[in-house]
Amino acid sequence: MPILSLLLPVLMACVFGCPAPVFAADRFITVASTTSTEQSGLFGHLLPAFEKAAGIRVRVVALGTGQALDLARRGDADVVFVHDKAAEEKFIAAGFGVKRQEVMYNDFILVGPQADPAQAAGKDILEGLRRIAATQAPFVSRGDKSGTHAAELRYWKAAGVDLATVKGPWYRDTGSGMGPALNTAASMNGYILADRGTWLNFRNRGELGIVVAGDKALFNQYGVILVNPARHAHVKQADGQTFIDWVVGAAGQQAIADYKIGGEQLFFPNASK
Amino acid sequence: MSDLSASFALAGELVAAGDARLAAIVWLSLKVSLSATALSCVLGMPIGALLSVGRFPGRHALIVLFNGCMGLPPVVVGLLVYLLLSRAGPLGQYGLLFTPTAMIIAQTVLITPIIAALTRQVIEDEWREYREQLRSLGAGRARAGRTLLWNARFSLSTAALAGFGRAVAEVGAVMIVGGNIDGVTRVMTTTIALETSKGDLPLALALGVILIGIVLAINTGAFLVKQWAERRWG
Description:
By secondary structure, chain A is α/β, with parallel strands linked by helices. Chain A is built from 13 helices and twelve strands.
């Protein structure tokens, strides 16, 4: 390892010659976030406004919530911006994060074939899932420990469906992000739990449409957390906090409310004042 | 079928429009993969020569190891480099994760075995042919290795191109160590993966067509240079 440590700076110097200092001078924070915020286009809308206001660049690494928290736990991000309250509280309790602040919400929707072979349509997500399990209609699961996956598992449990016993070929555990899982669902014309943001921005819909929406249980809360500098000394505490203060502040909340696709608002700001 | 033709048309439009963001992504792809290829040549070619003309215990095991590592899964390389460069990892203090440098390191790890293994094969053939001659000139093994590397430089360009092709086409390693950060570490392959995620399949395929076009152009360029150099100095 010592040889590598010696070699690395040399490698950097020879490969990047002059650009290296430019990278160093660039003021930025790293935000570990979810695929839904990136793939729905929200960050593309939100971040330029923040960068202009604060002069701090935001580098977003978009992963599932589980992976994003894991990355932060290792100290590879300054801020996490995710949507799995239970996992976030565990993260804080273990001392990896400073404080969890709520930012915005949207909702999950059950997407499925417009012909709706399982008769799952309606306003009740639990009833919809029960019908899918009963008819064994194809269902695509994220299976990647993301916030959406965690929510899906909660709904199955609440619906009284024991996946371990009813799981069959109809239940496809894809281990992939929201977009890839939607692609899979579109190609096999199956049901899938999705976040509304990614769905609205998703192009390859095939025969799919929204089957269940508007159930209170489908509420999907996003939170933002500064990674604990006491745990990882290099965390950019001041700049990270500036970002958090901005998204939960008036300007950030307004920018979130302003983001629309086809006239439809994707995320609803609800930071506590 | 309409999707396919739409993609090719879109690829043409994207190139014709000369979009600055696309150009930056293409440029970063080339910078990362060409740097990795250069580093891998510097590391891999001497290793290949050593494995072909050298005689030492464990040589066969190393040859098998390098041949086997030609099939290293990019995701595994990415994970390995990620764990090394992560703040919690042994090289975390340099803060290299999610930088182009991290991507160059990962691709170098990925393709050095390919270049070393292909070099070994080329030099071994040369060594069989010129062994007696080199010996009669009194060249030691180190000297012979250097001479043969220089002699085979035109054939070795194929090894370099194979390495470059692998580097520029992989997505698994750069996705993990680069993080696909817009404007910082987003390259052609991670952009294609992202657009596929968004379900914009025609755009994803159009970007793929452009990537293939670039790789073909580079190979054409390398081929022409090689031909010209062979005529001149061959």
